Amino acid sequence: MNVVTTRFGTIQVRELDVIQVPEGLVGFRGTTQFVLWPDPEVSGLVWLQSTADPDLAFAMVPPQVAVSDYRVELRPGDRTALELDEAGEPSVFVILNRGEQGLTVNLQGPLVFNLARRLGRQLVLTSSRYAVRFPLGEPEASPAVLPGPSALRATA
What we know:
The chain is mainly β. The chain has one domain (about 1-135): Roll (BH3618-like), CATH 2.30.290. About 5% of the residues lie in helices and about 30% in strands. It has one helix at about 75-80, and strands at about 1-5, 10, 20, 35-40, 45-50, 55-60, 90-100, 100-105, 110-115, 120, 135. Strands 3, 4, 5, 6, 7, 8, 9, 10 and 11 form a 9-stranded antiparallel beta sheet that branches. The chain is globular and about 40 Å long. It starts with a strand and ends in a 21-residue tail after the last strand.
C-alpha cells in the first residue's frame, strides 16, 4: 500500500502496518488510520502519519526522553479498547512540538499503542502532575536521543 506524505514523499507500507485509532486524536477525531514511520534522520523520533491526509503527521518520542519516571496507569476501559490482556504492555509515545521556547512534549496527552493488535488510543490525563508543554532539556529530563532543533523539519 502506498501512503502519500508531504514530509517523506510516497512511502510503501504493508496493510498490516496500518494502526487503527478508532476515536482519533484530540482535534482530529475523524482521522483514524495511521502508520508509525521512523524518522530517517533523527534517532528516537517516530512519526504518526495519517494514511488519508498527506499533511497530517505527528512527531513522537518515548516520554522517558523528557521525564525518566513517566508512568501511565491504564484504566480497564483503556485496556479493553486496546485489546491488552492483564500482562500486555503497551507502547507509549508523546507528541513533540516546536514552540518559541524550543522543543516541548505533551505529557498530558500520551498516545498508547498495542502494536500486536495494531490499535492506538490517545489518553487525556486529568492529573496536573504532567504538563501539556513540557520543555525538553529541563533538569529532570533524561539525556536526549534527539539532536538540537535544527535537525527537525519546520513542519514538526
